[in-house]
Specification:
binds fe (ii) ion, 2 domains, 16 helices, Purple Acid Phosphatase, chain A, domain 2, single chain, 500 residues, six-stranded mixed beta sheet
Length: 500
Protein backbone atom coordinates (compact mmCIF):
# COMPACT_ATOMS: atom_id res chain seq x y z
CA UNK A 1 0.00 0.00 0.00
CA UNK A 2 1.26 3.49 -0.79
CA UNK A 3 2.24 6.09 1.79
CA UNK A 4 -0.52 8.26 3.17
CA UNK A 5 -0.28 11.85 4.37
CA UNK A 6 0.29 10.42 7.85
CA UNK A 7 3.50 8.79 6.60
CA UNK A 8 5.25 11.25 4.29
CA UNK A 9 4.85 14.62 2.59
CA UNK A 10 4.90 12.81 -0.77
CA UNK A 11 2.05 10.64 0.50
CA UNK A 12 0.07 13.84 1.02
CA UNK A 13 0.66 14.75 -2.60
CA UNK A 14 3.22 17.52 -2.03
CA UNK A 15 5.79 18.03 -4.74
CA UNK A 16 4.17 15.52 -7.06
CA UNK A 17 5.97 14.89 -10.32
CA UNK A 18 3.01 13.98 -12.46
CA UNK A 19 -0.57 15.25 -12.70
CA UNK A 20 -3.32 12.64 -12.60
CA UNK A 21 -5.19 11.34 -15.63
CA UNK A 22 -8.47 12.80 -14.36
CA UNK A 23 -8.13 15.77 -16.75
CA UNK A 24 -9.06 13.44 -19.59
CA UNK A 25 -12.44 12.80 -18.02
CA UNK A 26 -13.36 16.46 -17.82
CA UNK A 27 -15.47 18.32 -20.35
CA UNK A 28 -13.55 20.86 -22.44
CA UNK A 29 -15.40 23.77 -21.04
CA UNK A 30 -16.61 23.97 -17.47
CA UNK A 31 -18.37 27.02 -16.21
CA UNK A 32 -16.50 27.77 -13.00
CA UNK A 33 -18.57 28.38 -9.94
CA UNK A 34 -17.76 31.82 -8.71
CA UNK A 35 -19.11 32.47 -5.26
CA UNK A 36 -18.16 36.12 -5.73
CA UNK A 37 -20.55 36.54 -8.63
CA UNK A 38 -23.56 38.54 -7.38
CA UNK A 39 -25.84 36.56 -9.73
CA UNK A 40 -24.68 33.35 -8.06
CA UNK A 41 -25.25 34.70 -4.57
CA UNK A 42 -28.69 35.97 -5.55
CA UNK A 43 -29.61 32.59 -7.06
CA UNK A 44 -28.59 30.85 -3.81
CA UNK A 45 -30.77 33.10 -1.61
CA UNK A 46 -33.41 30.59 -0.51
CA UNK A 47 -31.44 29.44 2.54
CA UNK A 48 -31.37 32.99 3.86
CA UNK A 49 -35.03 33.54 3.00
CA UNK A 50 -35.95 30.32 4.84
CA UNK A 51 -34.17 31.47 7.98
CA UNK A 52 -35.79 34.94 7.83
CA UNK A 53 -39.35 34.13 6.83
CA UNK A 54 -39.79 30.53 7.95
CA UNK A 55 -38.55 27.32 6.34
CA UNK A 56 -40.95 25.83 3.78
CA UNK A 57 -38.75 22.76 3.22
CA UNK A 58 -40.73 20.43 5.50
CA UNK A 59 -43.96 21.09 3.64
CA UNK A 60 -42.37 20.78 0.20
CA UNK A 61 -40.66 17.52 1.23
CA UNK A 62 -43.94 16.15 2.49
CA UNK A 63 -45.57 16.95 -0.89
CA UNK A 64 -42.74 15.17 -2.73
CA UNK A 65 -43.10 12.13 -0.49
CA UNK A 66 -46.89 12.05 -1.01
CA UNK A 67 -46.36 12.22 -4.77
CA UNK A 68 -43.91 9.31 -4.67
CA UNK A 69 -46.17 7.20 -2.46
CA UNK A 70 -49.11 7.83 -4.82
CA UNK A 71 -46.86 6.68 -7.67
CA UNK A 72 -46.24 3.37 -5.92
CA UNK A 73 -43.10 3.96 -3.85
CA UNK A 74 -43.05 1.78 -0.70
CA UNK A 75 -44.69 3.56 2.24
CA UNK A 76 -41.85 2.58 4.60
CA UNK A 77 -39.29 4.03 2.13
CA UNK A 78 -37.06 0.98 2.44
CA UNK A 79 -35.00 -0.14 -0.55
CA UNK A 80 -34.66 -3.91 -0.24
CA UNK A 81 -31.54 -5.07 -2.03
CA UNK A 82 -30.26 -8.58 -2.54
CA UNK A 83 -26.67 -8.05 -1.44
CA UNK A 84 -24.82 -11.00 0.06
CA UNK A 85 -23.75 -11.21 3.71
CA UNK A 86 -20.37 -9.79 2.77
CA UNK A 87 -20.32 -6.80 0.46
CA UNK A 88 -18.84 -3.32 0.08
CA UNK A 89 -20.18 0.10 -0.76
CA UNK A 90 -18.86 3.64 -1.24
CA UNK A 91 -19.81 6.93 0.39
CA UNK A 92 -18.92 10.21 -1.33
CA UNK A 93 -19.83 13.58 0.15
CA UNK A 94 -20.44 17.01 -1.39
CA UNK A 95 -19.49 16.12 -4.92
CA UNK A 96 -21.03 18.44 -7.44
CA UNK A 97 -18.84 21.43 -8.33
CA UNK A 98 -17.89 19.89 -11.67
CA UNK A 99 -14.32 21.09 -11.45
CA UNK A 100 -10.84 19.62 -11.03
CA UNK A 101 -11.25 18.54 -7.40
CA UNK A 102 -14.43 16.57 -8.23
CA UNK A 103 -12.94 14.83 -11.27
CA UNK A 104 -9.67 14.17 -9.44
CA UNK A 105 -11.55 11.81 -7.11
CA UNK A 106 -12.88 9.68 -9.97
CA UNK A 107 -9.92 7.49 -11.09
CA UNK A 108 -9.12 6.33 -7.55
CA UNK A 109 -12.79 5.86 -6.78
CA UNK A 110 -13.32 3.67 -9.85
CA UNK A 111 -10.31 1.58 -8.94
CA UNK A 112 -11.04 1.22 -5.24
CA UNK A 113 -14.77 0.85 -5.88
CA UNK A 114 -14.56 -1.73 -8.67
CA UNK A 115 -16.15 -4.51 -6.65
CA UNK A 116 -18.56 -2.35 -4.62
CA UNK A 117 -22.29 -3.05 -4.88
CA UNK A 118 -23.42 0.59 -4.80
CA UNK A 119 -22.44 4.12 -3.81
CA UNK A 120 -24.17 6.78 -1.73
CA UNK A 121 -23.67 10.50 -2.28
CA UNK A 122 -23.94 12.19 1.10
CA UNK A 123 -25.42 15.62 0.33
CA UNK A 124 -24.79 18.47 -2.13
CA UNK A 125 -24.97 16.41 -5.30
CA UNK A 126 -25.09 19.60 -7.41
CA UNK A 127 -23.71 23.10 -6.78
CA UNK A 128 -24.60 25.91 -6.74
CA UNK A 129 -28.41 25.51 -6.72
CA UNK A 130 -29.17 21.91 -7.75
CA UNK A 131 -30.28 22.70 -11.33
CA UNK A 132 -31.15 19.88 -13.72
CA UNK A 133 -28.88 21.43 -16.37
CA UNK A 134 -25.88 20.83 -14.12
CA UNK A 135 -26.37 17.07 -13.72
CA UNK A 136 -24.56 16.33 -16.99
CA UNK A 137 -21.12 17.64 -16.02
CA UNK A 138 -21.44 17.23 -12.27
CA UNK A 139 -23.05 13.81 -11.90
CA UNK A 140 -23.59 11.69 -15.02
CA UNK A 141 -20.27 12.44 -16.69
CA UNK A 142 -17.90 12.01 -13.75
CA UNK A 143 -19.52 8.74 -12.59
CA UNK A 144 -20.38 7.28 -16.01
CA UNK A 145 -17.89 4.41 -15.58
CA UNK A 146 -19.02 3.45 -12.10
CA UNK A 147 -20.89 0.24 -12.88
CA UNK A 148 -23.29 0.12 -9.95
CA UNK A 149 -26.26 2.14 -8.63
CA UNK A 150 -25.75 5.50 -6.93
CA UNK A 151 -28.22 6.59 -4.26
CA UNK A 152 -28.18 10.06 -2.74
CA UNK A 153 -29.46 12.29 0.00
CA UNK A 154 -29.82 16.00 -0.80
CA UNK A 155 -27.84 18.79 0.83
CA UNK A 156 -28.84 22.41 1.21
CA UNK A 157 -27.58 23.22 -2.30
CA UNK A 158 -29.85 20.59 -3.86
CA UNK A 159 -32.77 22.31 -2.16
CA UNK A 160 -32.15 25.79 -3.62
CA UNK A 161 -34.58 24.99 -6.46
CA UNK A 162 -37.03 23.03 -4.30
CA UNK A 163 -35.37 19.68 -5.04
CA UNK A 164 -37.05 19.29 -8.45
CA UNK A 165 -33.93 18.14 -10.35
CA UNK A 166 -32.83 15.78 -7.56
CA UNK A 167 -36.27 14.14 -7.60
CA UNK A 168 -36.17 13.71 -11.38
CA UNK A 169 -32.74 12.08 -11.32
CA UNK A 170 -32.98 9.85 -8.25
CA UNK A 171 -36.71 9.20 -7.94
CA UNK A 172 -37.77 7.69 -11.25
CA UNK A 173 -38.20 10.93 -13.20
CA UNK A 174 -40.62 12.46 -10.67
CA UNK A 175 -42.73 15.18 -12.36
CA UNK A 176 -42.64 18.73 -10.94
CA UNK A 177 -44.96 19.54 -8.05
CA UNK A 178 -48.01 21.59 -9.03
CA UNK A 179 -47.62 25.26 -8.04
CA UNK A 180 -49.56 26.04 -4.89
CA UNK A 181 -51.80 29.12 -4.64
CA UNK A 182 -49.76 32.15 -3.54
CA UNK A 183 -49.94 32.98 0.19
CA UNK A 184 -52.17 35.93 1.10
CA UNK A 185 -50.55 39.31 1.66
CA UNK A 186 -49.32 40.72 3.87
CA UNK A 187 -47.59 37.80 5.57
CA UNK A 188 -44.12 36.36 6.00
CA UNK A 189 -44.97 33.47 3.69
CA UNK A 190 -46.22 35.92 1.06
CA UNK A 191 -43.02 37.96 1.21
CA UNK A 192 -40.96 34.80 1.02
CA UNK A 193 -42.80 33.49 -2.00
CA UNK A 194 -42.30 36.86 -3.76
CA UNK A 195 -38.54 36.67 -3.30
CA UNK A 196 -38.17 32.88 -3.67
CA UNK A 197 -35.72 31.59 -6.26
CA UNK A 198 -37.27 29.09 -8.70
CA UNK A 199 -35.74 27.00 -11.48
CA UNK A 200 -35.01 28.67 -14.77
CA UNK A 201 -37.67 28.13 -17.44
CA UNK A 202 -36.61 25.22 -19.60
CA UNK A 203 -34.13 23.89 -17.02
CA UNK A 204 -33.28 20.25 -17.67
CA UNK A 205 -34.41 19.93 -21.27
CA UNK A 206 -31.33 17.85 -22.03
CA UNK A 207 -31.48 15.80 -18.85
CA UNK A 208 -32.63 12.62 -20.61
CA UNK A 209 -29.74 12.91 -23.05
CA UNK A 210 -27.21 13.45 -20.22
CA UNK A 211 -28.74 10.57 -18.29
CA UNK A 212 -27.71 8.15 -21.05
CA UNK A 213 -24.18 8.29 -19.64
CA UNK A 214 -25.42 6.26 -16.69
CA UNK A 215 -28.23 4.24 -18.18
CA UNK A 216 -26.88 0.67 -18.04
CA UNK A 217 -29.05 -1.81 -16.16
CA UNK A 218 -26.40 -2.30 -13.49
CA UNK A 219 -26.36 1.46 -12.83
CA UNK A 220 -30.09 1.78 -12.34
CA UNK A 221 -31.14 3.13 -8.96
CA UNK A 222 -34.60 4.22 -7.94
CA UNK A 223 -35.16 5.58 -4.48
CA UNK A 224 -38.52 6.18 -2.83
CA UNK A 225 -37.86 9.83 -2.02
CA UNK A 226 -35.26 12.25 -0.67
CA UNK A 227 -34.90 10.15 2.51
CA UNK A 228 -34.79 6.36 2.58
CA UNK A 229 -33.39 3.25 4.18
CA UNK A 230 -31.42 0.58 2.33
CA UNK A 231 -31.47 -3.01 3.60
CA UNK A 232 -28.21 -4.42 2.34
CA UNK A 233 -26.78 -7.71 3.57
CA UNK A 234 -26.74 -7.70 7.36
CA UNK A 235 -27.09 -3.92 7.81
CA UNK A 236 -29.65 -1.16 7.36
CA UNK A 237 -28.32 2.12 5.98
CA UNK A 238 -30.55 5.07 6.84
CA UNK A 239 -30.34 8.25 4.74
CA UNK A 240 -31.99 11.43 6.04
CA UNK A 241 -32.69 14.75 4.33
CA UNK A 242 -31.83 17.77 6.48
CA UNK A 243 -33.00 20.29 3.89
CA UNK A 244 -32.04 23.95 3.65
CA UNK A 245 -31.31 24.59 7.30
CA UNK A 246 -29.98 21.30 8.68
CA UNK A 247 -33.14 20.19 10.52
CA UNK A 248 -35.72 17.40 10.25
CA UNK A 249 -39.47 17.90 9.73
CA UNK A 250 -41.86 16.10 12.08
CA UNK A 251 -43.06 13.64 9.44
CA UNK A 252 -39.53 12.54 8.60
CA UNK A 253 -38.69 12.41 12.31
CA UNK A 254 -41.56 9.96 12.90
CA UNK A 255 -40.36 7.84 9.98
CA UNK A 256 -36.78 7.86 11.35
CA UNK A 257 -38.01 6.62 14.72
CA UNK A 258 -39.95 3.85 12.99
CA UNK A 259 -37.19 2.57 10.66
CA UNK A 260 -34.71 2.72 13.51
CA UNK A 261 -36.66 0.04 15.41
CA UNK A 262 -35.60 -2.66 12.94
CA UNK A 263 -33.24 -5.12 14.69
CA UNK A 264 -30.39 -4.83 12.13
CA UNK A 265 -27.26 -2.84 12.95
CA UNK A 266 -27.45 0.59 11.31
CA UNK A 267 -25.41 3.29 9.66
CA UNK A 268 -26.83 6.81 9.40
CA UNK A 269 -26.06 9.01 6.38
CA UNK A 270 -26.92 12.69 6.80
CA UNK A 271 -26.32 16.10 5.26
CA UNK A 272 -25.62 17.55 8.73
CA UNK A 273 -22.80 15.83 10.62
CA UNK A 274 -23.54 15.27 14.32
CA UNK A 275 -19.97 15.84 15.49
CA UNK A 276 -17.89 18.28 13.45
CA UNK A 277 -15.03 20.73 14.04
CA UNK A 278 -14.81 19.66 17.68
CA UNK A 279 -18.47 20.43 18.33
CA UNK A 280 -21.66 18.45 18.86
CA UNK A 281 -24.66 19.29 16.63
CA UNK A 282 -27.43 16.85 17.59
CA UNK A 283 -29.80 18.00 14.74
CA UNK A 284 -33.22 19.08 15.98
CA UNK A 285 -36.42 17.36 14.91
CA UNK A 286 -39.49 19.57 14.51
CA UNK A 287 -41.83 18.94 17.45
CA UNK A 288 -39.07 17.71 19.79
CA UNK A 289 -36.10 15.43 20.13
CA UNK A 290 -32.95 15.17 18.05
CA UNK A 291 -31.47 12.86 15.46
CA UNK A 292 -28.59 12.08 17.81
CA UNK A 293 -30.98 10.87 20.53
CA UNK A 294 -32.26 8.30 18.06
CA UNK A 295 -28.72 7.35 17.03
CA UNK A 296 -27.60 6.92 20.67
CA UNK A 297 -30.53 4.75 21.77
CA UNK A 298 -28.89 1.31 22.21
CA UNK A 299 -32.09 -0.42 21.03
CA UNK A 300 -31.59 1.14 17.59
CA UNK A 301 -28.11 -0.35 17.08
CA UNK A 302 -26.50 2.53 15.20
CA UNK A 303 -22.77 1.88 14.84
CA UNK A 304 -21.84 4.91 12.71
CA UNK A 305 -23.25 8.29 11.64
CA UNK A 306 -21.67 9.72 8.50
CA UNK A 307 -22.35 13.30 7.43
CA UNK A 308 -21.47 15.52 4.48
CA UNK A 309 -21.71 19.32 4.41
CA UNK A 310 -18.18 20.07 5.62
CA UNK A 311 -15.69 19.37 2.85
CA UNK A 312 -13.07 17.28 4.61
CA UNK A 313 -12.81 14.09 6.66
CA UNK A 314 -13.14 13.85 10.44
CA UNK A 315 -13.81 10.93 12.78
CA UNK A 316 -14.92 10.98 16.42
CA UNK A 317 -15.24 7.57 18.14
CA UNK A 318 -17.73 8.48 20.87
CA UNK A 319 -18.47 6.20 23.84
CA UNK A 320 -22.22 5.85 24.37
CA UNK A 321 -23.51 3.54 27.11
CA UNK A 322 -20.39 1.38 26.89
CA UNK A 323 -20.50 1.11 23.08
CA UNK A 324 -18.53 3.13 20.54
CA UNK A 325 -20.37 5.02 17.82
CA UNK A 326 -18.20 6.28 14.97
CA UNK A 327 -19.21 9.84 14.08
CA UNK A 328 -17.72 10.68 10.72
CA UNK A 329 -17.59 13.80 8.53
CA UNK A 330 -17.13 12.81 4.91
CA UNK A 331 -17.77 15.86 2.73
CA UNK A 332 -14.47 15.73 0.87
CA UNK A 333 -15.82 14.09 -2.29
CA UNK A 334 -15.51 16.89 -4.81
CA UNK A 335 -16.23 20.45 -3.78
CA UNK A 336 -13.63 22.89 -2.59
CA UNK A 337 -11.75 21.89 0.58
CA UNK A 338 -12.75 23.26 3.97
CA UNK A 339 -9.90 23.89 6.39
CA UNK A 340 -9.08 21.42 9.16
CA UNK A 341 -6.40 23.62 10.75
CA UNK A 342 -9.11 25.78 12.34
CA UNK A 343 -10.35 22.80 14.37
CA UNK A 344 -9.27 23.49 17.96
CA UNK A 345 -7.58 20.86 20.09
CA UNK A 346 -10.26 18.18 20.25
CA UNK A 347 -11.76 17.42 23.64
CA UNK A 348 -15.41 16.47 23.37
CA UNK A 349 -17.44 13.51 24.64
CA UNK A 350 -14.22 11.84 25.81
CA UNK A 351 -12.71 12.10 22.33
CA UNK A 352 -9.29 13.72 22.51
CA UNK A 353 -6.50 14.29 20.00
CA UNK A 354 -5.43 10.71 20.61
CA UNK A 355 -8.64 9.27 19.19
CA UNK A 356 -9.60 12.03 16.74
CA UNK A 357 -8.69 11.67 13.05
CA UNK A 358 -8.88 14.13 10.20
CA UNK A 359 -7.86 14.49 6.59
CA UNK A 360 -6.20 16.66 5.44
CA UNK A 361 -3.91 16.85 8.46
CA UNK A 362 -4.11 20.31 10.01
CA UNK A 363 -0.58 21.21 8.89
CA UNK A 364 -1.40 20.30 5.29
CA UNK A 365 -4.61 22.29 5.47
CA UNK A 366 -2.70 25.37 6.70
CA UNK A 367 -0.02 24.97 4.02
CA UNK A 368 -2.77 24.64 1.37
CA UNK A 369 -4.52 27.84 2.49
CA UNK A 370 -1.29 29.77 2.91
CA UNK A 371 -0.40 28.95 -0.71
CA UNK A 372 -3.88 29.87 -1.85
CA UNK A 373 -3.87 33.23 -0.06
CA UNK A 374 -0.35 33.92 -1.31
CA UNK A 375 -1.60 33.50 -4.87
CA UNK A 376 -4.86 35.36 -4.47
CA UNK A 377 -3.34 38.33 -2.65
CA UNK A 378 -0.15 38.27 -4.73
CA UNK A 379 1.91 37.98 -1.56
CA UNK A 380 3.44 34.60 -2.13
CA UNK A 381 6.67 35.23 -0.30
CA UNK A 382 4.88 36.43 2.76
CA UNK A 383 2.04 33.92 2.92
CA UNK A 384 3.32 30.64 1.57
CA UNK A 385 4.30 28.16 4.28
CA UNK A 386 5.94 24.85 3.49
CA UNK A 387 4.17 21.76 4.79
CA UNK A 388 6.94 21.40 7.38
CA UNK A 389 6.55 24.99 8.63
CA UNK A 390 2.77 24.70 8.68
CA UNK A 391 2.82 21.41 10.60
CA UNK A 392 5.30 22.78 13.14
CA UNK A 393 3.31 25.92 13.85
CA UNK A 394 0.06 23.93 14.16
CA UNK A 395 1.73 21.59 16.64
CA UNK A 396 2.92 24.59 18.65
CA UNK A 397 -0.43 26.40 18.65
CA UNK A 398 -2.44 23.31 19.57
CA UNK A 399 0.13 21.80 21.91
CA UNK A 400 0.11 18.49 20.04
CA UNK A 401 2.93 16.37 18.62
CA UNK A 402 3.68 16.39 14.89
CA UNK A 403 1.22 14.08 13.19
CA UNK A 404 3.24 12.98 10.19
CA UNK A 405 5.53 10.06 10.97
CA UNK A 406 8.47 11.22 8.87
CA UNK A 407 8.66 14.83 9.79
CA UNK A 408 11.33 17.06 11.19
CA UNK A 409 10.48 20.21 13.06
CA UNK A 410 10.90 23.34 11.02
CA UNK A 411 12.27 26.44 12.73
CA UNK A 412 9.42 28.76 13.61
CA UNK A 413 9.78 32.39 12.64
CA UNK A 414 7.58 35.40 13.41
CA UNK A 415 6.27 35.21 9.83
CA UNK A 416 5.18 31.59 10.20
CA UNK A 417 3.40 32.40 13.45
CA UNK A 418 1.74 35.49 11.99
CA UNK A 419 0.46 33.67 8.91
CA UNK A 420 -0.85 30.81 11.08
CA UNK A 421 -2.66 33.38 13.21
CA UNK A 422 -4.13 35.22 10.24
CA UNK A 423 -5.40 31.95 8.81
CA UNK A 424 -6.98 30.93 12.10
CA UNK A 425 -4.91 27.87 12.96
CA UNK A 426 -6.25 26.02 15.98
CA UNK A 427 -9.13 28.33 16.64
CA UNK A 428 -12.82 27.70 16.67
CA UNK A 429 -14.21 28.74 13.29
CA UNK A 430 -16.95 30.92 14.78
CA UNK A 431 -14.69 32.82 17.17
CA UNK A 432 -14.24 36.20 15.55
CA UNK A 433 -12.85 38.18 18.48
CA UNK A 434 -9.47 38.62 16.78
CA UNK A 435 -8.90 39.32 13.14
CA UNK A 436 -8.37 36.40 10.85
CA UNK A 437 -8.91 35.64 7.18
CA UNK A 438 -11.87 33.48 6.20
CA UNK A 439 -10.96 29.83 5.65
CA UNK A 440 -13.95 27.74 6.56
CA UNK A 441 -17.47 27.84 5.08
CA UNK A 442 -17.29 31.55 4.57
CA UNK A 443 -14.36 30.99 2.25
CA UNK A 444 -16.63 29.89 -0.58
CA UNK A 445 -18.70 33.01 -0.18
CA UNK A 446 -15.78 35.42 -0.35
CA UNK A 447 -13.27 33.77 -2.61
CA UNK A 448 -13.75 32.23 -5.96
CA UNK A 449 -11.59 29.19 -6.52
CA UNK A 450 -10.29 30.32 -9.90
CA UNK A 451 -8.33 28.00 -12.14
CA UNK A 452 -5.08 29.45 -10.80
CA UNK A 453 -5.81 27.84 -7.47
CA UNK A 454 -6.54 24.46 -8.99
CA UNK A 455 -3.30 22.66 -8.56
CA UNK A 456 -2.76 19.49 -6.55
CA UNK A 457 -2.80 18.40 -3.84
CA UNK A 458 -6.57 18.90 -3.55
CA UNK A 459 -6.98 16.78 -0.37
CA UNK A 460 -10.19 15.11 -1.53
CA UNK A 461 -11.44 11.79 -0.19
CA UNK A 462 -14.12 9.11 -0.30
CA UNK A 463 -15.11 6.20 1.93
CA UNK A 464 -15.25 2.50 1.30
CA UNK A 465 -17.17 0.33 3.77
CA UNK A 466 -16.73 -3.44 3.84
CA UNK A 467 -19.61 -5.19 5.55
CA UNK A 468 -19.63 -8.69 7.04
CA UNK A 469 -22.12 -10.22 9.53
CA UNK A 470 -19.59 -9.47 12.30
CA UNK A 471 -17.96 -6.17 11.33
CA UNK A 472 -17.96 -3.05 9.18
CA UNK A 473 -14.54 -1.89 8.07
CA UNK A 474 -14.54 1.82 7.20
CA UNK A 475 -11.65 3.29 5.23
CA UNK A 476 -11.05 6.84 4.06
CA UNK A 477 -9.16 7.00 0.77
CA UNK A 478 -7.36 10.10 -0.45
CA UNK A 479 -7.49 11.76 -3.86
CA UNK A 480 -4.90 14.46 -4.43
CA UNK A 481 -5.02 15.05 -8.18
CA UNK A 482 -1.56 13.55 -8.61
CA UNK A 483 -0.86 10.44 -10.59
CA UNK A 484 0.79 8.60 -7.69
CA UNK A 485 -2.34 8.72 -5.50
CA UNK A 486 -4.60 7.99 -8.48
CA UNK A 487 -2.84 4.71 -9.25
CA UNK A 488 -2.81 3.64 -5.62
CA UNK A 489 -5.12 5.72 -3.43
CA UNK A 490 -3.66 5.93 0.09
CA UNK A 491 -5.74 4.92 3.09
CA UNK A 492 -5.86 7.96 5.36
CA UNK A 493 -7.91 6.35 8.09
CA UNK A 494 -9.24 2.91 8.86
CA UNK A 495 -11.43 1.54 11.60
CA UNK A 496 -13.12 -1.81 12.09
CA UNK A 497 -16.50 -1.57 13.80
CA UNK A 498 -17.91 -4.64 15.56
CA UNK A 499 -21.60 -5.29 14.84
CA UNK A 500 -22.40 -7.34 17.93
FE1 LIG B 1 -21.37 21.16 0.58
Amino acid sequence: MSDSSRDTAEGAGWGAAELGTYKRLMPHKVEKISWLDPRMLWAARNGVLASWFGDPTGRTRSRWVAQRTAAGAPADKVIRRDDPDRFSFLVIGDTGEGDDPQYAVVPGLLKTGQDTRFAVIASDVIYPVGSADDYGTKFFRPYQDYQAPIYAIPGNHDWYEDLGAFMRVFCDDAPPLPREPAPRPPSRAWLRSLLWHRPRKGDGQRLAEHGKLRSADVQRAVQPGPYWAIDAGPVRIVGIDTGLLGTLDAEQGAWLREVSKDPRPKILITGSPLYVDGEHHPCAIEGGGTVDEIVRDPAHRYVAAIGGDIHNYQRYPVQVHGRTIQYVVAGGGGAFMHATHTIPRVDIANVTEKEFRCYPLRGDSLAFYSTLYGRRLRLRRFFTLTEAEASAVVAERLGIPLTRAQQTTARLTWRTRLVAGLLGAGRRPDRTARFRLPVRKIYTQLFSPSSATYSPPFFKCFLRLDVTPETVRLRCYAATGSRAQEVDPPVEDEVTIPLN
